[in-house]
User: Fold this.
Amino acid sequence: MSKNLVRENVPLSRFGVLVAQLESIGASASQQSPDPLLVMRLIWDKWQLVAAAPEKTKPAFPPLPLAARTGSTALEEYKGPVLKEEEEDLEVKLRRILENVPVRVSNTSGSSVGSGSGDFHQYRQMRRREQDRLARMDVDYQRRKELAEFTMRREERMKAAEERTVKK
Assistant:
């Protein structure tokens, strides 16, 4: 093998394996010894292909962890559930309701251990409001109950009057 066939970016071991493969192919094709010029031409063509493809080298550093490559610390990237069209519409509607409906919190007491002088007045006012609300609910319940009883008695009287006036 001449030195002008050896290139710097092709290792000799790879080139030697290539030559052995080509010689075995040429020898098996014809039982006679192959034409040396043909073998050299095949070797040269194959060597050009091998020389064009750089050899894969092992990286100097180990591969980066997944978090460093993707910018995520999750073991597996989250993919939302696959929803049907109706479910997607429902999700959009529910999200819109949750975002647009205000949550009203009035006069929440603090989380400190000691109560200030104004806290009692706030507590008394909140207690009075709650008692008024419960009283209104009771009055409304009584009114609805009386109305239901009245309509029931009225229907009974109407049926009784209807039965008396029916011709036999």
Summary: The CA atoms of residues 161 and 167 lie 12 Å apart.
